[in-house]
Amino acid sequence: MKITGSYAFDAPAAQVWETLMSPDQLSSCIPGCQGFELIAEDEYRVTINIRVGPINGRYEAKIALRDQNPPNSYRLVAEGSGPLGFAKGVAIGTLTEQDGKTTLQVEAEAEVGGTVARIGQRMTGTVAKTMMDRFFACLRETRASPATY
What we know:
By secondary structure, the protein is an alpha+beta fold. The protein has 3 helices and 7 strands. A 7-stranded antiparallel beta sheet has the order 1-7-6-5-4-3-2. A hairpin with a 2-residue loop joins strand 3 (43-52) and strand 4 (55-69). Helix 2 crosses helix 3. The relative contact order is 0.26.
């Protein structure tokens, strides 16, 4: 499944980058996050509760930030599993600054399997996009000035 989004921040790219790379900011903005632990440089173990329609499950995931080109781009690699299935994916984030404001373009490719995919197949894309939108809205509100996306 492909997921894309464009998010505007009323802040320079360096400030948005700092927010994106802050473990405290990330952990506080991931929807359903119940645990966030550094396990290696730029790698985290995350415990998250996800609801897809009538299915609610707790997932353990590993998130790694790769190919960092501050403050221009990064690649996020995620893989997780739980009693209801698995999810894995890669997202590329590209920041563009103009007149002190930054646009973050995100292009992600994800795969979901197991019970959650079979039962909630039609909803998984919508849930994933909603979670991504909520995550970046939270980042705007916590560190960078609010803007629209």
